Amino acid sequence: MWQAFREDVKAQGVEVVTVGIDTAGPEACRSFIEAADPQHPSLIDEHHRVAELFGVVNIPNAVWIDEDGMIVRPAETSPAPPSVGVERTPNQRAMEDPPARVVEMMAHASQITYDAPTYEAAMRDWIANGADSEFALAPDQVIDRSGTRNEDTARGVAHFELATHFELAGAHEAAIGHFRQAHELVPDNFAYRRQAWSLEPSVEGPLARFWQGPLEGQEADWPYESDWNTDVKEMGAPNYYAEWKP
Amino acid sequence: MITETLTVSRADFETRTGWQLKPEGACKGDICVPLAENPQGGTINLATLAPQLNMPLVHDEAHGVWALGPESMGSRVLATVEAPNLTLPTLDGETFELASLRGKKVVLVAWSPY
Questions:
Q1: Which residue is closest to A59 within chain B, CA to CA?
Q2: Beta bridge partners of A148
Q3: Most Cβ neighbours (<10 Å): which of A69, A103, B57, B105?
Q4: What CATH number matches the domain at A2-100+115-141, 3.40.50, 3.40.30, 2.60.120, 3.30.50?
Q5: How close A198 gets to chain B, by Cα (Å)?
Q6: Could you list the pLDDT tens digit for every one of the 246 residues in chain A?
Q7: Sign of dihedral through CA atoms A136, A53, A61, B92?
Q8: CB-CB under 8 Å, A159 with B62
Q9: Which residues of chain A does B81 touch, with a Cβ-Cβ cutoff of 8 Å?
Q10: Interface check B62 vs A, CB under 8 A
Q11: Residue A26 and residue A24: Cα distance in Å, rounded?
Q12: Is A195:A223 a contact under the CB 8 Å cutoff?
């Protein structure tokens, strides 16, 4: 868990900042944050500013910033440090008799791969050695690895902000059209898709926001081109996160 | 940046986009873009300024709202490695600025509850 990692390394002049990206806002994040009880800054990002500013395209993603405010690693997959606690995700919670859709999601999720120990070791190396760490990238590498931003993706970011603006104003139908535009224009941003899917009518209870697809028998009403299961099946679960490069 | 008018406060534009309007042009980190005409006074016209910075203006006509998107300078999200001053609320609504952590290393982690 990030809170335990932060306590372990804070004496070395490092701070962890966690950002909950959710248009559903602070109340949607509250129970998770209160359970983690972070002593570090814990922020709420209703408009996915971290996508616009840093190129975050999925969660968890992290950015490393040095003492002078210079980015030394751009947004990349950032599994929670395993040495200081067990990462818990909703998919790992025990569930009795889960619905078929969730069984399929869990089967996909079980094939999603990341290398948490390697990522943690790299982080600790940078924290100890700063610019001398082999994992602190040169400026041209940071920029090169920071994701695609052309005129299309920039327009997609603008559409996404219109979508979150309308969603927060209670105009859900107006938001859908702009979410769709954002999905088309920024196809590598999986968080943009998951955000929109998670705001659609869903099952009751704790699975509501993880359903991320049409309800059975209501497929024709689903307003998006895809859904979590379809997308992950198509990309192949092992490709859900890009392979981490040192 | 969401706006109902194409004329916006210069201060809002600078805070929201990270671009600073200086005598030499619009600057962000180590990049400065000379402008055809330097904005005077406290307001700016996005219709004039946005194209010069290659920032999209997307209009939702039905609702009378514009969104100003980010610049595309090269082909990458980051045009400079200088970290933008991410400014977001905490759970309790207090405003937090990333720049307040200058002097420390920062690991900025994005997560979501869905």
A1: B111
A2: B76
A3: B105
A4: 3.40.30
A5: 7
A6: 899 999 999 999 999 999 999 999 999 999 999 999 999 999 999 999 999 999 999 999 999 999 999 999 999 999 999 988 755 555 555 677 889 999 999 999 999 999 999 999 999 999 999 999 999 999 999 999 999 999 999 999 999 999 999 999 999 999 999 999 999 999 999 999 999 999 999 999 889 999 999 999 999 999 999 999 999 999 999 999 999 999
A7: positive
A8: no
A9: 70-72, 139, 142-143
A10: yes
A11: 7
A12: no
What letter represents residue A206's amino acid? P
Q: Read out DSSP for B40-109?
A: -TTEEEHHHHHHHTT--EEEEGGGTEEEE----SSSBS-SSSBPP--EEEBTTS-EEEGGGGTTSEEEEE
| Token representation of residue B27 | 């600057």
- The one-letter amino acid code at B3 reads T
User: Does B76 touch chain A if contact means CB atoms closer than 8 Å?
Assistant: yes
- From chain B, the residues in CB contact with A136 under 8 A are none
Handedness of CA B18, B21, B27, B29 (dihedral sign): negative
Domain ranges of chain A: 2-100+115-141, 151-239
Would you state the structure tokens that stand for residue A220, as one six-digit string? Answer: 């024709």
What number is the ipTM of this complex? 0.97
**Taking each helix axis from N to C terminus, what angle separates A228-235 and A190-198, rounded to the nearest 10 degrees?**
160
State the DSSP code for A214: P
The pTM score is 0.95
